[in-house]
## 1
Amino acid sequence: MKQISEQLSLLADLERKALWLSTWTIHNANSIRPKTDDLKVGGHQASSASVSTLMAALYGAVLRPEDRVAVKPHASPIFHAWQYLLGRQTRENLENFRGFGGAQSYPSRTKDADDVDFSTGSVGLGGAMAVFAAMVQDYVAAKGWLQRPKGRMISILGDAEL
């Protein structure tokens, strides 16, 4: 019982770190990083906060290497924070969030340096892509072509995706 309690305590600590880091990333992009104008670059703190516990459970305990996750677009700051905590994202990319060469405002397989499973820049696509990926995986498995363990396809959706 003590081991489970310690694991939950560690996950809670990591969750707080990821949430703080995602909030700092947005604040840095809007208020600290030097800019040539007064425009704010945005960021969605509430969207990140709304999935912080879910992300802690997934990235801290549940996901297997073969699993794939479609992260709701507005939660990219906390996704990038988790990637940083896992050693898959750089501090420089977080400091340049929504800037040239920095972490993208929406998870992107082509523009992000970290491990994005599904590009979800168009709101609503993540859920559909994960369902389609699961169907393709099932088809490939049924044909006997699957060369790796079957993964779970997970979608994290927000109100914009519904």
## 2
Amino acid sequence: VLVSRSLAGVPVSFIRGHSIPDSCHFTLDSISHIPLPGLLINCNHLSLITSSVSHFKGCTSTLTADDFAVFFTNKTRTISDQFSTAQTEDNFKTTNAHSLSSFSPLSETDVSKLILSSHPTTCPLDPIPTHLLQAISSSVIPSLTHIINSSLHSGTFPSAFKQARVSPLLKKPSLNPALLENYRPVSLLPFIAKTLERAVFNQLSMFLVQNNLLDRNQSGFKSGHSTETALLSVTEALRLARTASKSSVLILLDLSAAFDTVNHQILLSTLRKMGISGTALQWLNSYLSDRSFMVSWRGEVSKSQQLATGVPQGSVLGPLLFSIYMTSLGSVIQKHGFSYHCYADDTQLYFSFQPDDPTVVARISACLSDISSWMNDHHLQLNLTVTVLLVVPANPSFHH
């Protein structure tokens, strides 16, 4: 009872994200009705949790929806404006002899499966709640099938589906809510728009998998893969190196607003080289172009902001398109004898060496220099404040 009262008023999002030591844990669902099965809470640090949440409790924010809209737009534009517009080709090369020139039409049964198997999330832009749409799906499936097939056949993504509604989310409850930079945008898209995306996603991903065009070292947004596969791949390589009495270097790369700064022309060029052509490529071009968003904040909605770069946040296709965009980075890393593994826009590169190898520093410098050039060519910005280099010695000592 005491613990339940102590947790009263503590945001669930904060409890989820709090870093918890290994000692003195209990599960929250055993003492509370909050549906967080298996969540571990640390008794010793409960006062720290509640005090950090209440630190800014009295802070009154005067931020408006338009403030957020302008801030999110300018953040992306500032990064994109750093790069030359002359580079619009990717150096990705493929020997793929197959092509995908059009997307196949869907049957009413196919569309029904897409509708009913989707999570019933609802966006403010949806005309009716998604759970209601699913309940009456048998009545609307013929019309939805016609809309989807017309889009696929014409190579055009409907303009009505290109707007997103964005909600600002405080990155950490302990941050000052009066500062714009402490928020991240959470993008919501219409349910029917995402249903159309799923129709394309299924066909595009099948083509890429069948022709072995996806990066095998990318664990993000891939069936059967997760953060666990990325973590195990890297840690096992480092463990084996130490077993062989070798030292290792691990470099963790982080990108700033990576999804939002994807250059459309470079992405389309990469898709073309992978064998995407015809109305399929035309559809993807239409999907990416002329998008916009509005911010919802405390009951008000901002003016619409245009998006000139990026893959849509909160979308079905966005993560897959981003993985395609990053594909050629792997060859740059491997050219220097490094191994790597990715999860979305987080890239871990590593290599092992004899402890007395005098070439290590030069190899690291050369590899990072080429990565920096690749990032610049692809209009992506390394976040140097979060990027980390870690040395894993063959024989741990006090000096290490």
## 3
Amino acid sequence: ISGHQHIVRVDEETLRPLSPEEEDALLQRFRERLSADRPAVVVIEDYNKGVLTPRAIAGALEACREAGVPVTVDPKKENFFAYTGVALFKPNL
């Protein structure tokens, strides 16, 4: 940082799908928060980093349908067709 501005930024990440155990934990936590927080809407931003697997997407959408919570989604192309039945679909190409 120089003069209150970033000069260089280096990011490193590992792209891999969640394991079934990680998916289970994510969906359990999602359902808990959905029940506790009772949001008016759920916004899903999918950047193809591996967290939003087809199974995780289906589980989250099912939980939202059961709770009567509309979903908006901004997906990358990898999972376009996994987001069926959402209120708003805004592709992020």
## 4
Amino acid sequence: VIHLSSLDTIANEQIQEQTWKYVNEGKIADVFSPGMYELSTQNLPIISTLKGWKYGFNSPFKAEIYFFSTKVFTNFKWGTANPLTIRDPELGPVRLRAFGNYSFRVNNPSKLLQELVSTDGLFQTDEISDHLRNMIMTSFASWVGEDQTPLFDLASHYRSLGEQVRQAIQRDFAQVGIELTQLLIENISLPPEVEKALDQKASIGLLGNMQQYTQYQTAQAIEKSAQKPGTSNAGMELGMGMAIANQMMNGMQFQSSPQEQLPMTPPPPPSQGQWYLYQNNQQLGPFSIHQLSQQDLNSQTQVWKAGMNAWKTASEIPELTFLFPVAPPPPPSMEKQWYMYLNGERIGPLNQEQLSQQGLTRDTHVWTNGMEGWKKASEVTELASLLNSTPPPPPQLV
């Protein structure tokens, strides 16, 4: 800030990335872009004459000139002071941190002067960096809470996500005369314990099954023990080394003759209630009973769990019989419904017992589904038993 008092003339040749404000008695009188200017009392002839009457109309005047740099200020850091809790569509509730950098420039010096600079004679970027960073973090927290992008996909969208946040926050920056020219997201990270769990899950997925994972964990334990030499560690390494050797030998034998080794070499004992399958010359598992029901399991599939002497077919194990329900017997055939024509009236539907009760005779006309037309009862084989049960007429008395 340059204060003008008794000076009548000031000359300024600005560089390209500067602008300056002429302030008279606390009010912005004019704005000057880069160039050569001469400022004197003659620029304000009327007001300077009125103000200088007590000086014999040869007046000084008091004014202030504020210079503003309009270049782009780069490499300002932003980051989360505390973890943000969000709900991820794949992981559920998680906490994350984020950091990056941003760039800005002054695009409205008058508004910046009114809102932030005020009477500060030397106003620097450090004085507003905290304020700008807080504005960024507030908008970032709101945006990441609304966005539905899975965390695993964020890394491939850092550039576009940074631009979305920049556009969302630009309105807040404009209120203080500043343009946010760029916002970069350098990293969005999870807590160390969550990252460790994800790494272990990925390792298991790459290894394929629990037996290979056990070998991997054993090898890792040997490597760590080697970094801490001692007699106890040596014995531990020896025991684990023998365990790996046995597993490798069993694996080789299992691959060379799987049919012979099935009853002799069951897999390592799993935790209680965990099942293993043997399908397509491959051991699968462990599975809970619920997971087992979702596999391609049939009654002849070989299964095994802790406590069994050998592999068995699934149909031999009582615990698994519910997975193979017995088909119900065929439903009983539906009893035919009969109609009879008696005394000029059609009667029915009736079952055979009801036919007999209605006074069925050999000459009674009957019909049921499947017959082409009415027939005498004596012509229907299915009704023979009913007709035979009718006693013959009594003999005539001589």
